[in-house]
Amino acid sequence: MQRVYETFITRISGCADTHDFRETMNVAALEFQIRSFAYFSHSADQTTEPRVISNYPQDWATRYREKAYQKIDPVIRSVGNQPEPFFWPSEHCSKTYCDLETNIFEEAAEFGIGRGLTVPIHDRHKQKAAMTFAAAVDDQNFVETARVYQHALQLMATCFHIHARRVFSKATIIDGVTLTKRELECLQWAARGKSAGDTGEILGIKRRTVTFHLENVRRKFEVRTVAQAIAILAVSRPDLI
């Protein structure tokens, strides 16, 4: 356990972007034989989009986002009321949740997200945040493992949040969209005519990581191409090019 925690702390301290955070938690969770996790955070004023770092199946993440399930997700709603980690779904699910909320659990189960342990995180910055560790409905070992290592998982979730907040607090808002420091850097170099490979060499990161950040930028701006994202940057913040 000590080795796992020390390795996690070392890796999380060096995370610089979403990809780094996702891979670090993925490795740590697997040490507990937990294959799925999702981190969620939202500013107190809720003026920006929630930040989500997860290794959930992409098809489920897309459906969740398109149907705006975060507005009715009973797990997220419980985070604000629960000071301590909690397991879901409730044993009294039919009494606790409405039909629409129950449907979310049923849909998630189709993608291997059938049960979970959620760790609410309350900090002095008044951010609403949580880390969920999840498993398939038929994973008989998950609940026992999560109970045994609940304290360790809670500590890792808190450390994850603290470092993520530190990194992403340096974000920049472009045309109402929040870009991380690394996403902005990749977009800036793209605007200056640099390829993903060139940008990777300049920033000291891999080409695929540059591509990952530019895809995030494109998705956030809701445009089809990086060139369109560059146009938004040029119009909104020409001083950054």
Summarize the structure in words.
With 241 residues, the chain is an alpha+beta fold. It has twelve helices and seven strands. The chain has helices at residues 2-13, 18-30, 58-66, 74-79, 93-96, 99-110, 142-148, 150-168, 181-191, 196-203, 207-221, 226-236, and strands at 36-42, 51-54, 86-88, 115-122, 128-135, 172-174, 177-179. The strands form two sheets. Strands 2-1-5-4-3 form a five-stranded antiparallel β-sheet. The protein has a two-stranded antiparallel ribbon with strand order 6-7. Strand 6 (172-174) and strand 7 form a beta hairpin. Helix 1 packs parallel to helix 8, helix 9 (181-191) packs across helix 11 (207-221) and helix 10 crosses helix 11 (207-221). The radius of gyration is 19 Å and the shape is globular. The model has no long low-confidence stretch (mean pLDDT 89).
| SS elements, strand count | 7
Strand order of the largest sheet: 2-1-5-4-3
In terms of quaternary structure, what is this?
A: single chain
Given the C-alpha coordinates, what overall shape results? globular
The count of helical stretches stands at 12
List low-pLDDT spans: none
Would you kindly provide a brief summary of this structure?
The protein has 241 residues and is α+β, with helices and mostly antiparallel strands. The chain contains 12 helices and 7 strands.
